[in-house]
Amino acid sequence: MTSTDVRPELAAGLTFPPGFTFGAATAAYQIEGAVDADGRGPSIWDTFSHTPGRTFEGHTGDVAVEHYTRYPQDVALMAELGLSAYRFSVAWSRVLPEGAGRVEQRGLDFYRRLVDELLGAGIDPWLTLYHWDLPQALQDRGGWTARDTAARFADYAGVVHDALGDRVRHWSTLNEPMCSALLGHMSGQHAPGERNPVAAARATHHLLLGHGLATQVLRERGADHLGVTLNFTPMTPATDRPEDVDAARRLDGQQNRMFLEPIVHGAYPADVVADLEAAGAPLPVEDGDLEVISAPLDWLGVNYYFESTVRVGVRSPDRPTSFIGAEDVVELDPEGPTTTMGWGISPDAFTRLLLWLGEEAPGLPLVVTENGSAWPDEPAEDGAVHDPERSDYLVRHLAAVTDAVAKGADVRGYFAWSLLDNYEWARGYAQRFGLVHVDYGTQRRTVKDSGRAYADILRRHRQAQEG
Ligand code: FCB
Questions:
Q1: Distance 131 CA to ligand 1 centre (A)
Q2: Would the CA dihedral through 373, 378, 382, 383 be positive or negative?
Q3: Measured from the CA of 341, which atom of ligand 1 is nearest?
Q4: Which of 210, 405, 450, 454 could bridge 153 with an S-S bond, Cβ 3.0-4.6 Å?
């Protein structure tokens, strides 16, 4: 791999703004395991992963990486890497096993222990309230297709803030509502596994409404470092033929602008509204919703992995589209090397994305809340995990961030996805994203070379700040 050669030099030359936050991210269902511990109720991911044919080789998060009991060791690893922050999510059904009503104190106690362990190690906890694991009891009442779920989410936000607001400063409502709405209800790749455009449009709006209502509840309780995480995939037309240009507009609309614009501009993009109405799947907006959804935030979380090139064409029947009314649009296979997810590698598109967001949301600080890559890592004979591809991806994407900052984007932090190898949703344990390798047989953790490369960059940043 030729680009590896430039990596140490590139890494050594990276400079970040003062106070820049460096962290790593995880999500509850991907790491905790202990799905029956301490009164936890089932979530849609328990149901989905236990449904035959839904996940790679039937993998589930039942055990995952046993973070529920091994969290002290995992926090010690974060300290060893020199992280200044850790982004994790709370499992709604640990706190409210039926989604609403009865609070399970033992669930809250787990997160309190985790947060105290982090604070004791000098690591700033960044808490996400929802990373896809809706309580099954709420799904049984319609899930995100039901407007009531948005109100239940706000109640849940209040319960968690009442328990942890004295020790957690950074709060985020949702992780990637696009995936919950469209992968969950349009392509059915994710829980709850529906394939229904009407449900997908309803879920989209109710997730955003839930974000807005939770924002109100958190503000009333004094939250002052509040954000939301969206996932962005830049969409480029494969040719300049009008139908391909329009295909890129449609996918960009639903992937990127349909989630960003209501939050930062207080309106859905008019072209997307028209596309969804034409597809018979309107957004169920009621009076006042957009004011709620667009309440001011303190930061915007940006998840970026790859870009996509699209054109009109015939989709293969085993790859249903995630986009409403876009059955005639295909995403091309990426050119050049791909990760084991099959995703391309485009750091330049990351720089352009951050600059575009700076223009779309002037004055709103950006935080990269996820970025990373999956590779087929295994420990070598020397016991170490040599993953030059991940180090290369990491350094080139960090350089993309510094480029964007140099050109004026206000980026305040970067969280690598992920701290640990973990349960990669429908792709199971076959996809390894961690800076730390996990042997799933023994649960042994080994810091990969990329973890050490990240630690070196963080150490140099700290020294530059201090010196
Ligand atoms: C993101 C998810 C995260 C992880 C990465 C690879 O879409 O937020 O949980 O699965 O992709």
A1: 9
A2: positive
A3: 6
A4: 210
Does 20 score more than 90 pLDDT? yes
**Predicted pLDDT at 4:** 47
The predicted model gives 198-218 an average pLDDT of 99
C-alpha 438 – ligand 1 centre gap (Å): 17
- Best probe residue, ligand 1, of 255, 302, 424, 435 (max atoms within 8 Å of C-beta): 424
Cα 66 to chain centroid distance, Å, stands at: 20
In the set 104, 307, 331, 370, the catalytic residue is 370
Q: How far apart are CA 398 and CA 464, in angstroms?
A: 17
Q: For residue 282, what is the domain's CATH number?
A: 3.20.20.80
- Structure confidence at residue 5 as a pLDDT band (50, 70, 90): low
Rounded CA separation 394/382 (Å): 23
Looking at the chain, the whole-number percentage of residues with pLDDT higher than 70 is 99
The number of domains in the chain is 1
Q: Which atom of ligand 1 is nearest to the CA of 431?
A: 6
Q: Count how many Cα atoms sit within 13 Å of the Cα of residue 369 in the half-sphere of its side chain.
A: 30
Q: Are 143 and 92 in contact (CB under 8 A)?
A: no
- Triad 352, 353, 356: Cα angle to 5°: 85
Cβ of residue 178 lying under 6 Å from some atom of ligand 1 = no
Predicted confidence (pLDDT) per residue in 78-97, tens digit: 999 999 999 999 999 999 99
Q: Which residues constitute the domain of residue 227?
A: 3-466
Query: From residue 307, how far is each of 65, 247, 255, 333, 376 by CA, in Å?
Result: 30, 15, 11, 11, 22
- Kindly indicate the confidence band of residue 43, based on its pLDDT and cuts at 50, 70 and 90: very high
Q: What is the pTM of this model?
A: 0.98
The C-alpha atoms of residue 96 and residue 73 are separated, in whole angstroms, by 27
Active site residue 80: no
Q: Is 425 in the pocket of ligand 1 (CB under 6 A)?
A: yes
6 pLDDT band, cuts 50/70/90, is low
Nearest alpha carbon, ligand 1 atom 2: 176
* Residue 291 is among the residues annotated as catalytic for this protein: no
**pLDDT score of 3 more than 50:** no
387 lines ligand 1 (CB under 6 A): no
- Convert the pLDDT of each residue in 380-421 to its tens digit: 999 999 999 999 999 999 999 999 999 999 999 999 999 999
Name the residue of 370, 371, 390, 394 whose CB sits within 8 Å of the most ligand 1 atoms, as the mutation to test its pocket.
Answer: 370
